[in-house]
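Database export, one record per block. Field names are fixed; values are copied verbatim from the stored entry.
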Amino acid sequence: MKILDNPSKETWKKQLARPTFKTKQINKIVKPILRKVKRNGDKALFKFAMEYDHVELESLFPSEIEIQAASAALSPALKEAINVAKANIERFHMAQATPELVDEVMPGVVCKRKSIPIQKVGLYIPGGTAPLFSTVLMLGIPAVLAGCKEIVLCSPPSKEGKIHPAILYTASLIGITKIVKVGGAQAIAAMTFGTESVPKVDKIFGPGNQFVTAAKQIATKYGVAIDMPAGPSEVLVYADESANPAFVAADLLSQAEHGVDSQVILVTDTEKFAKRVIKEIDEQLEELPRKDIAKKALANSRAVIIDTSEEAMELINFYAPEHLIISVAQEDEAVNAVYNAGSVFIGNYTPESAGDYASGTNHTLPTYGYARNYSGVSLDSFVKKITYQKISTEGLKNIGPTIEIMAENELLEAHKNAVSIRLKHLKKQKK
């Protein structure tokens, strides 16, 4: 992990650059996959299962026996943990519901705004090196709470042709019944175009590798919305001498183990503290089963020494991290200065893992600097806001002249006339 000592602002972009995607090469692989799924439907999905997952599937759907076996395969402790996480996530996301807004903006002119669920949503759940059953909770719970009519969950099969039991159990627990054994770009293609077995959806959610990410971006060209642009997972820890170096190291490693293209950043005010953290990283790293992955991620990572808290916060907002951990003595000041971050974790005893699993906040967050302009997934992600208005005769008399003069000055006579014709009608009625 390289140490940067008070780098100048002009170098921040270069020094903190995230690992880059080879977009052209990726799209060369992804685009033909989308074309084949669009053209051949289920047939293509079976073929890609053989090609990429190395399994000959008999069905794209798990049987009832598989779903029941999944529950039996999990330990009582894990099922209890999933239930606790489910309760917290449900509670926090239920609290995000907004009441219908009704306002009479002037006499006789009533405006209303209402949340309407997106009808068909697709959830992509990775199942490769780390089967993310927690993501089933993070995406499935708000989808169910929002009232989405159709929820489709896609996850890649194992070499035995099965979806990971924890993913199946969690999906079943929250009431998702449309589960499909398909992963990668082909899953995104299936949800984008629809196949004989997989419905076309209106919006796709979920993390994935660079091929899944590329496929989601392409999906937007075919009228399908996505949750957000996404890249590899990342964390930035802002810590000073008041923090525990072992805790900081553990938080950095928790993201580094996600994938070789992940990036972790430490921002601190002294080189001494940075070196203590790096020493802890080296020690803890040796105990990790995924240490080889974490080592490669650490090669992309940086420890940055910044003398002043003001400049430290400027750098943090410039970087716009997916996860931001604040563990400094003046935590309130730092927290209040954050304006670019996916999710913020405050204090020595708030590990990023809490948000990943069970605190209640959502772990599907903007990466790659997109926290500058995107929010993480929430209940709002699964609804549309529709506005309504109703104008009485009195209201039209009040607002009509305003509309007429504005339309006239924009040279849109038909717009003006739509009001004028009604006002003339009301005058005639009065006579």
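Remark 1: The chain has three domains: 23-227, 231-375, 393-430.
Remark 2: The first strand starts at residue 2 and ends at 5.
End of record.
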